[in-house]
């Protein structure tokens, strides 16, 4: 992730619990630089951004969902129910390393599937 993407992610996560109840996210295990990539937006992620990520990513598997903040302050990522177990495990593994050491706050994030 670039510095700008990291700053945008942190800024959008800061909105949780203040002005937004939840925000959308997009994840790929291999972004353009080969490292995991998580993008967020205050309202919705534009289709052209999703397309650019898919074209530039080294790993074409894309996960989408929503991020919220739990009452205890932890960030919670909600995946759709149709996400495979392997994709969910890869996502959890990348979060536990803070996306390769890029964002330490995500090491304590919670991942759950929607019903």
- Rounded mean pLDDT is 88
Order of helices and strands: HEEHEEHHE
State the separation between the terminal residues, measured CA to CA: 30 Å
* Low-confidence blocks of residues: none
Count of beta strands: 5
Helix-and-strand structural type: alpha+beta
Radius of gyration: 13 Å
> For the report, how would you describe the main beta sheet?
5 strands, mixed
**Which sequence of strands runs across the widest sheet?**
2-1-3-4-5
Share of β-strand residues: 15-25%
Approximately how much helix is present in the residues?
25-40%
What is the number of helices? 4
Topology, element by element:
Elements: H1 3-15, E1 22-28, E2 37-40, H2 47-56, E3 63-69, E4 75-79, H3 85-96, H4 98-101, E5 110-113
Parallel strand pairs: 4-5
Antiparallel strand pairs: 1-2, 1-3, 3-4
Task: Describe this entry's structure for a reader.
The chain has helices at 3-15, 47-56, 85-96, 98-101; strands spanning 22-28, 37-40, 63-69, 75-79, 110-113. The chain is α+β, with helices and mostly antiparallel strands. Strands 2-1-3-4-5 form a 5-stranded mixed beta sheet. A hairpin with an 8-residue loop joins strand 1 (22-28) and strand 2. The N and C termini lie far apart (30 Å). The model has no long low-confidence stretch (mean pLDDT 88).
């Amino acid at each position: 992730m670039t510095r700008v993407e990291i700053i945008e992610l942190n800024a959008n996560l800061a909105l949780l619990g203040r002005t937004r109840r939840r925000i959308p996210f997009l994840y790929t295990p291999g972004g353009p630089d080969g490292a995991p990539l998580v993008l967020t937006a205050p309202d919705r992620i534009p289709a052209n951004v999703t397309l650019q990520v898919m074209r530039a990513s080294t790993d074409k598997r894309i996960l989408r969902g929503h991020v919220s903040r739990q009452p205890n302050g932890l960030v919670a990522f909600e995946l759709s129910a149709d996400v495979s177990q392997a994709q969910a495990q890869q996502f959890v593994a990348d979060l536990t390393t803070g996306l390769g050491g890029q964002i330490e706050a995500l090491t304590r994030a919670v991942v759950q599937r929607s019903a």
